[in-house]
Design a protein that fits this description.
7 helices, 9 strands, alpha+beta, Pnp Oxidase, Chain A, single chain, 29% helix
Length: 217
């Protein structure tokens, strides 16, 4: 991933937070017919060494065709939003503004391990479900469904595990703009109705700087 230092994010706690909040990943691997991309929710297991865990349909060739000695790429997409040039405070001063797109992403690399173990798969499902349900008033649990029903479903999937060998985040959230533009962008984002508008406004303000830079990325 092309990433200027201005936008680079390497702090593990920040990368972990985005993955936990936006766990639906795009897993890119090399299959029998070339590159394959599969959308898969992945759970970032607790521990010192970052480890992604999930499961795929047994019918999915991913777990059979991906060589164990070749890295896969896992992409987690956080908030993203179009940025209109009309939102920049400097538009009235110079007119030298163009549209862009703000986003936060994490790219993780590692080898794919297969966990064809019903007990492991159940544990992974319980962990991911608990993560996603924790803020609900009445969280649903895997145990709420009939056991024979969930056991049949578990037999139809295969567990996967990816020890992360390297990962990097890119937070392109208007850091290359002067502070007046950062504040005006955040203000306009706060007025939008998009699902990521408020989250992006918060990211812009959280990365607000006072020095003016001019990279494009």
């Amino acid at each position: 991933m092309y990433c200027l230092e201005t936008f680079s994010e390497t702090r593990p706690e920040i990368l972990r937070a985005l993955i936990q909040r936006y766990p639906l990943a795009t897993l890119v691997s090399m299959g029998a017919h070339g590159l394959e991309a599969n959308p898969i929710p992945l759970y970032l297991a607790p521990g010192v060494e970052p480890m992604l865990q999930g499961h795929v349909a047994r019918a999915n060739p991913l777990w059979r065709e991906t060589p164990p000695d070749i890295e896969v790429l896992v992409i987690f997409q956080g908030p993203q939003h179009y940025i209109s040039p009309s939102w920049y405070a400097t538009k009235a001063e110079t007119g030298k503004v163009v549209p862009t797109w703000n986003y936060a992403v994490v790219h993780a690399h590692g080898s794919l391990r297969i966990r064809d173990d019903p007990d492991w798969v159940r544990q992974q499902m319980v962990a991911l479900t608990a993560q996603q349900e924790k803020d609900f008033f009445q969280p649903w649990q895997v145990e709420d469904a009939p056991q024979d029903f969930t056991e049949r479903l578990i037999q139809q999937v295969v567990g996967i595990e990816i020890p992360i060998s390297r990962w990097i985040g890119k937070w392109k959230v208007s850091q290359n703009q002067p502070q007046c533009n950062q504040e005006s962008v955040a203000a306009h984002l706060a007025q939008q109705a998009g699902s990521y508008s408020a989250a992006m406004a918060d990211l812009v303000l959280s990365r607000r700087t006072t020095d003016k830079k001019d990279p494009v990325g």
